[in-house]
């Protein structure tokens, strides 16, 4: 089949690599793609948040399947426009994508579905924000209601910092702090049926030891040797299936990836957040272990045939992804510097481009993901860092404690 993949980041490069390895994928078109993805398929320009432009490209590309990678195109309704052309799409429509596009909507859905999550208040004014901060106390958790590329959440002991973030946002969700380790579980959904992938854990903060501001993610690993044996089953029964049923009951069936961000708290499993797409960088690690042909899996979901697909198959062992970030990230990154070593095996491009002379340069906050695999998390970690050490980028930064002591 001919597959059109929308996006240009590390998540999409990982998806492209897995799709290219699927014998059923005879043509891969990446829009707009990146220099790393160009080695796997044809890269074509497109405004990925313009539903009409993406739908037109899907038609002219004669795509049998369109996969929408990032959240912004999903929230913009790109999947709806493509479906209107009669082309199968892996990715929720704009209404269903509000599960990520609006934290307040997600909380409303969880409440209706009986899904365990943190108590929260939606705030629009200073007075509402102050009251909520006082109600829940420190550590303060303040979330921008809209999309913020993984950087819209502030968790702090400093009330003034928490209030300042709330006032910077048009609308925020302020909620109780959830203790315990966090876990990401990606659930493949076709509107009716659902299948889980391997659980993973990412590292959100810029600094080692979990210090500094939140980022889109500085690294991840899978599987989780310390997790309860029944974790995935519990998440499916208490979180994913009720949420998907609630959305279907509202007439907005969810087709795509329901990203369940979870906390294993002292009071039990609770949802931290939902996203409407694969998490970056967790999916880079997860896909490194997937043996099931990805194109066939996502086509089954896009066409409502997931129940007939069978179980997912996984390689034994573990995978670790370490992110190389640009100087200045997660603030304003320094861009345009030359980048070397990015053609090594296991390297996924996230924020790169070629300059006029053909030199690879860093253009984003997160520049590369270095993925290692091994028989254990420790072995995979060693391989990931061996790859990372081969990357040369002036001012580049990576955490050295990803998946340490697992």
UniProtKB/TrEMBL annotation:
It is an enzyme of class 6 (ligase). Pathway: Purine metabolism; IMP biosynthesis via de novo pathway; N(1)-(5-phospho-D-ribosyl)glycinamide from 5-phospho-alpha-D-ribose 1-diphosphate: step 2/2. This is Phosphoribosylamine--glycine ligase. Keywords: ATP-binding, Ligase, Nucleotide-binding, Purine biosynthesis. InterPro entries: ATP-grasp, ATP_grasp_subdomain_1, PreATP-grasp_dom_sf, PRibGlycinamid_synth_ATP-grasp, PRibGlycinamide_synth, PRibGlycinamide_synth_C-dom, PRibGlycinamide_synth_C_sf, PRibGlycinamide_synth_CS. Residues 107-303 form the ATP-grasp domain. The gene is purD. Its cofactor is Mn(2+); Mg(2+). GO terms for molecular function: ATP binding; metal ion binding; phosphoribosylamine-glycine ligase activity. It catalyses: 5-phospho-beta-D-ribosylamine + glycine + ATP = N(1)-(5-phospho-beta-D-ribosyl)glycinamide + ADP + phosphate + H(+). GO terms for biological process: 'de novo' IMP biosynthetic process; purine nucleobase biosynthetic process. NCBIfam families: purD (TIGR00877).
């Amino acid at each position: 089949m001919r597959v059109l993949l929308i996006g240009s980041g590390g998540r999409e490069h990982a998806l492209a690599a897995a799709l290219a390895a699927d014998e059923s994928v005879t043509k891969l078109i990446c829009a707009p793609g990146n220099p790393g993805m160009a080695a796997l398929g044809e890269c074509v320009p497109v405004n990925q948040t313009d539903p009409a432009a993406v739908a037109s490209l899907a038609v002219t590309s004669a795509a049998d399947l369109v996969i929408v990678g990032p959240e912004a195109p999903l929230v913009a309704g790109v999947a709806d426009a493509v479906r209107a052309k009669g082309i199968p799409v892996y990715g929720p429509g704009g209404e269903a994508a509000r599960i990520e596009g609006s934290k307040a909507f997600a909380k409303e859905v969880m409440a209706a579905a009986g899904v365990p999550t943190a108590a929260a208040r939606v705030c629009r004014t200073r007075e509402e924000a102050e009251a909520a901060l006082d109600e829940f106390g420190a550590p303060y958790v303040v979330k921008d209601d809209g999309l913020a590329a993984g950087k819209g959440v502030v968790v702090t002991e400093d009330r003034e910092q928490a209030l300042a973030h709330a006032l910077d946002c048009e609308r925020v969700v302020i909620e109780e702090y959830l203790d315990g380790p966090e876990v990401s579980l990606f659930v493949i959904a076709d509107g009716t049926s659902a299948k889980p992938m391997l659980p993973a854990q990412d590292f959100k903060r810029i600094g080692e030891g979990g210090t500094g501001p939140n980022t889109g993610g500085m690294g991840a690993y899978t599987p989780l040797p310390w997790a309860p044996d029944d974790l995935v089953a519990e998440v499916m029964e208490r979180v994913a299936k009720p949420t998907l049923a609630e959305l279907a009951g509202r007439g907005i069936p969810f087709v795509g990836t329901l990203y369940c961000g979870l906390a294993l708290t002292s009071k039990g499993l609770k949802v931290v957040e939902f996203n409407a797409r694969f998490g970056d960088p967790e999916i880079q690690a997860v896909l490194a272990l997937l043996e099931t042909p990805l194109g066939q899996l996502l086509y089954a979901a896009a066409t409502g045939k997931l129940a007939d697909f069978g179980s997912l198959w996984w390689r034994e062992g573990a995978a670790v992804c370490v992110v190389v970030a640009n100087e200045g990230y997660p603030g304003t990154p320094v861009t345009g510097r030359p980048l070397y070593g990015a053609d090594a095996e296991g390297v996924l491009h996230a924020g790169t481009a070629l300059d006029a002379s053909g030199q690879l340069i860093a253009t984003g906050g997160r520049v590369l993901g270095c993925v290692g695999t091994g028989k254990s998390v420790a072995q995979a970690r060693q391989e990931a860092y061996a790859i990372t050490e081969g990357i040369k980028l002036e001012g580049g930064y990576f955490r050295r404690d990803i998946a340490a002591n697992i």
